Amino acid sequence: MKRGGAAIAAVAVLGIGLGIFALRHEPAPSLPVAGLAPPSRTERAKETAPAAGPLIGTKSAPPASPEQRAAARQSIEEAVTTYEQAAVKTIAAFLQDPDPDIRLAARDGLIQLGEQDAIPILRQAATRMSDAAEATACREAADYLELPSWSDTPEGQEALARIRARHGK
User: Fold this and answer.
1) Which helix (H) or strand (E) holds 112?
2) Residue 4: exposed, middle, or buried by beta-carbon count in 10 A (0-12, 13-18, 19+)?
3) Where are the domains of the chain?
4) Per-residue confidence at 21, pLDDT binned at 50, 70, 90?
5) Cα(161)–Cα(143) distance, rounded to whole angstroms?
């Protein structure tokens, strides 16, 4: 009985040790969303590889003044409310601002705009961020924009068809 219990304990310890080793040496796979396959190791490496050029968010520049922040937010808001694809470039320029509040406003603006063109821009910006949390937020914003729209799902298509039928369209 004691021998059996010791063997079980040894197997449990070995299993936990292997699990910890795997966690340290293999990134956790992304969960598939809406039938999408998780990214491959190569794709994950591309997302995290540093890009050429200076890092964004280093302490070399002084923070923006309240007036500069307000002007940047206003420009971003105006670009978002155009609901045009061309606004992506206007907002994307603010992702390189030395002030983290302005970069946050730009990231949020790209999410609100919802254009697919923002996805590679956010991924590229993530590779140049000096702050790991900010880089992660850019990648998550890109992931969010990659999600299918509800109206593109079968449920959404059925609901839209019912609405059109009711309204004779």
Assistant:
1) helix 100-113
2) exposed
3) 1-30, 41-166
4) very low
5) 28
Greatest pairwise CA separation for the chain in angstroms: 77
Checking if the pLDDT of 3 tops 90, the result is: no
Tokens of 68: 């500069």
User: What is the Cβ-side half-sphere exposure of residue 143, based on CA atoms within 13 angstroms?
Assistant: 19
What was the pLDDT predicted at 29? 39
Could you give the CA distance from residue 39 to residue 45 in angstroms, rounded to a whole number? 10
Structural tokens at position 99: 């002030």
Q: How far apart are CA 72 and CA 122, in angstroms?
A: 18
Specify the pLDDT at position 57.
Answer: 65
Question: pTM of this prediction?
Answer: 0.61
Residue 117 parent element (H or E): none
d(CA 23, CA 20): 5
Residue matched to tokens 């670009």: 79
**Angle at which helices 118-128 and 100-113 cross, to 10°:** 160
| Token pair in block for residue 72 | 């940047």
Helix intervals (H) in 26-65:
41-48
Residues in the chain: 169
